[in-house]
Amino acid sequence: MLVLVTYDVQTSTSGGAKRLRQVAKKCGEYGIRVQNSVFECVVDATQYKQLQLALEDIIDPERDSLRFYNLGNKYNSKVIHIGAKETIDVAAPLIF
Amino acid sequence: MKRLLNIVYVSQSDVYLALNGKNLVLLKEGEELGKIPILNLEGICTFGHQGASPALMATCMEQNISLTFFSSSGRFRGRLTGAINGNVTLRKKQYEVSMDELESAAIARHMIVGKIYNAEQNLKRTIRDHALRVNTERLTQVVERLKQARKLAFSITSLEELRGIEGNAASAYFSVFDECILQQKEDFYYKGRSRRPPLDRVNALLSLAYSLLASETAAALEGVGLDAYVGFLHRDRPGRTSLALDIMEELRPVIAERFVLKLINRKQIQASDFIVKENGAVLLKDDARRSFFKLWQEAKQEQVTHPYLKEKIQWGLVPHVQALLLARFLRGDLDAYPPFLIR
């Protein structure tokens, strides 16, 4: 399934910058960065749960927020990209 | 059911593979070509003289991602595998069977029957779909010969005889393989198998398809805990994944050969996509090889109903399912190994 992960991490307070870095890094392990705080992750149910739990551990629930959008298995028709920053589709043929 | 993950093909010879966090990073002259999360990958196939970082290799071994090295012409060089996992009892049973001529033949028989049957189906399909354009009479004759060979193979108990039948069936089948090429006939013809190096375009395509299929099948076998190097029909030889070649027998006609025919008949590949070396070797150009991989990956996503499981799966999972069925047979959960028989 494709899961869209977006986050807001407050960097003005102490430790914010570190949390932001950690969240971005963790998301990067599971998916591809498509915009600044937006990741697209092609994962199975277990990996999805793992990602959720790992991110929950990092953030400060008082200040930061996370949103997960599950786009299911047939996600190709659900995503439209316009403009710059073409990204890699991890389910399409990967040839370099 | 296992999920079919993606395989990265690296066809440019100046790409370095590295690890960054849990991502595969492809670097070309220091520039990042791409970054892919490891968890989406099933394997990495590299062609040419690229390098890979030891950290990436370690991760591949840990996560059971096969890292396969091919020469730039597509010849298999080797595969990186980690500590073999899976069940030691299963592997012991596999070795036991492999050393017993009779038991080996009993399994190999099913694979050969599968191979001949699938070859028959390929020809029958050509007859059915293109009756007016092909030499139906000749094809029907070969189908008949294959049918007899298949029936004969059922009763064989020695590997030597089995190889004989297999050889005869293969030469009958390939004697009309050229008939199945319907388009671009001046450029694509089959006059006999040549390899190392392939001497015509069809052989070049077949070689590449077989190489890919062999490495994918070997990875599938190791995925269920079998030893890909110990075969039943193919005897042991250092560095040869004999069991993968065994299982491949039945998959060749329906996966590799059909794929190659489709490429030619749909004109997805053309004569201008090849280069001829001084020694007569025919090779695919870089661009064409890339589109070959792309179409190969896409073909793997297509669905097929598995004849034994009666379940819809992706083509790319067929080697995995066959590996699983073989493991089940060796464990004693099945009475016989059910080969993949295309409908």
Can you tag this structure with a few keywords?
heterodimer; A: 96 residues; alpha+beta; four-stranded antiparallel beta sheet; 30% helix; globular; B: 343 residues; four-stranded mixed beta sheet; three-stranded antiparallel beta sheet
Overview of the molecule:
The complex is a heterodimer of chains A (96) and B (343). With 96 residues, chain A is an alpha+beta fold. Chain A is 30% helix and 25% strand. Chain A is built from two helices and five strands, in the order E-H-E-E-H-E-E. Chain A has helices at 16-30, 45-58, and strands at residues 2-8, 32-35, 38-42, 65-70, 94-95. Chain A has a four-stranded antiparallel beta sheet with strand order 2-3-1-4, covered by helices on one side. In chain A, helix 1 (16-30) packs antiparallel against helix 2 (45-58). The longest helix of chain A has 15 residues, at 16-30. The mean pLDDT of chain A is 88. Chain B has 343 residues and is an alpha+beta fold. Chain B is 48% helix and 15% strand. Chain B has helices at residues 54-62, 88-99, 101-129, 136-154, 159-175, 201-223, 242-265, 286-301, 318-331, and strands spanning 6-10, 15-20, 23-28, 31-37, 41-47, 66-70, 76-80, 274-276, 282-284, 303-305, 312-314. In chain B, strands 1-5-6-7 form a four-stranded mixed beta sheet. In chain B, helix 3 (101-129) packs parallel to helix 7. The radius of gyration of chain B is 20 Å and the shape is globular. Chains A and B meet through helix 1 and strand 5 of A and strand 1, strand 4 and helix 8 of B. Strand 5 of chain A pairs parallel with strand 1 of chain B.
